[in-house]
Amino acid sequence: xxxxxxxxxxxxLHREQILKAAEKLFFEKGYVQTxxxxxxxxxxxxxxxxxxxxxxxxDILHHIMEKGLLALxxxxxxxVNRQEDFMEGYKEICMAMRNYQKEYPHSADTIRGADTSxxxxxxxxxxxxxxxxxxxxxxxxxxxVSDTVKNILILGEEINRIxxxxxxxGKEKGIVRKEVVPMLTVYIxxxxxxxxxxxxxxKGTYICRQFDISENEFLDYGFQQLINSILEVRV
Length: 235
Prior knowledge:
The chain is mainly alpha-helical. It has 10 helices and no strands. Helix 1 (3-29) packs across helix 4. The longest helix is centred in the last third of the chain and has 30 residues, at 182-211. It is globular and about 60 Å long. Residues 117-138 have low confidence and may be disordered.
């Protein structure tokens, strides 16, 4: 490994350790209550070192969000490309979202509650080239935001396009109803799956005990009801 590569690897390790400490604190104390001093103590890095890698606490939060979305995009991409069967692909997508909420809770919570209306609407199409991010990076409404925030928006749009393409393929195979609008359906299904996962986290124990089922059985039933809303033949 060259000197430059070694330096980059060390920097990446330091950044990751700071992110891990901050994410744990944000989850336990809340974002507002957590200070840079808290992150410094938890990560064992000085304030000076933290500021060498991140501009401020908000920048740390944005990197946590980006990290979670990167993992989610990879898992969803793998799910739709690995499974030829539409329903098996859908199940893996749901599991990817479940894993995202469990492994990156603060990223998921922040994304769910984020208001990006001031950044404008970035229209997408299932025929769009997923490598074309110019409409986000060059949009005048994003001129005042950081590259990390732009990356978050880009990742969100790329995930949406992957899911919309997945639904479009379901239409082509005659599995999804012809009148279904793929991108609009992505937003609706995303909302439904997220709400179901949140319900499982907050009231899952009570519901499972009431119906004498496991959490996996409860989620499988919920995922099935959601996808049935767009299928030609209910499962």
